[in-house]
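Deliverable D4.2, example record:
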Amino acid sequence: MSHSLRKARIVLHIARGVLLAATVFQRASAAKRQDLIRAWSRHLLHLCGMKLVVHGDAHTIDAGTLVVGNHVSWIDIYVVNAWRPTPFVAKSEIAKWPVIGWLAKTIGTVFIEREKRGDARRIMHHLASELSAGRNMFVFPEGTTSDGQGLLPFHSNLFQAAVSAGAPVQPVAMVYKDAAGNPTRAPAYIDDMNLLDTLNAMLDAAPLEVHLYVGEGIEPGAQRRELSAMAEATIGAALDAMRRGSMPVEIDRTSASVVSA
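Output generated by the structure prediction step:
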């Protein structure tokens, strides 16, 4: 299938998402909304030439969990939603993206203004409230995207939400691979790239696989820097294992070093 045809189908799929969000989604139950988001996200991955492979799904915690993961691309959001729809904390710039920004707002995305001093505190209180109410929330602790070949240092501020709510933290790791099973930078949303640049790179590299590893939940009790260090160690170990083509194993989290952020 040509790139032009694939892009046309993606545009039609986004238009269908807008229609669903403006009609059916507004009246749907919480469970039905999850089904709609999951199905829409899975089809978007398919149209982008990407197959999702989930490891460790038995670790999935159903409710009241701060889910954290590594960040490579805008497509990460739809990878996670294809696994388990979860509201995200995203940079405020996404809210201004045509169509996509509106869709993100509609499904509960929380936008943080990084340049605004104190906004992280506002977001933290919002997250704590959502977690206390039994809802899941997703945060990218790196604070920005990487090229997918390494893990940037975690910022621990938003882990305070889990501490305040007495909620568990669930680490997840995502690795993108090409048709030969090798890690690829194709989906990376870095430097001066825009959304269309990344989409073109993914279509050029297709077929792709994204491997998502669901780590064992970290129970409440630790402070935010300890939670951050344990989550970072778990995700880092899972990324290393998946890049080598092996299944991640649970690490000894007591050995995770604590760093300031």
